[in-house]
Specification:
Number of domains: 1
Number of strands: 4
Strand content: 15-25%
CATH architecture: Alpha-Beta Barrel
Radius of gyration: 15 Å
CATH superfamily: Luciferase-like domain
Largest sheet: 4 strands, parallel
Number of helices: 7
CATH class: Alpha Beta
Order of helices and strands: HEHEHHHEHEH
Length: about 140
Amino acid sequence: MLTLAGERASGAHPLGMPVEHTRQARKLLGPEALLAVTQLVVLDPCRSRSAGLARAHAAAALPNRLTLLRALGFDNPESLDDRLVEALVATGDTDDIARRVRDHLDAGADHVSLHVLTSTPEHPPLHQWSRLAARLR
């Protein structure tokens, strides 16, 4: 799909994939196509609190990404080991999230959207967005 996007579209918008996927996507798309990735985020410096939420969202992303994740070196993505969850969902404080954004940009992304996950999805994460906006200016 990325090769086709590079040939026939103005770019691609991968959702919730590891930084290594961004690197490969840039190679497949070529230098001129737009690469706008979406990074899933749990903004919480307490890893034990953020782990369950991150794991639940990583699990939801698995079914249609198994082949891609195996190709990226995740031999058994169904196990949802810590390495895979951390690659799919950025967790931590604003500095941790900023590092992940920088990693995607360094890997070839033109733009990184942040999808903030919370335990209360019925309420917009206004506080988290404000904190991230202040840090990522």
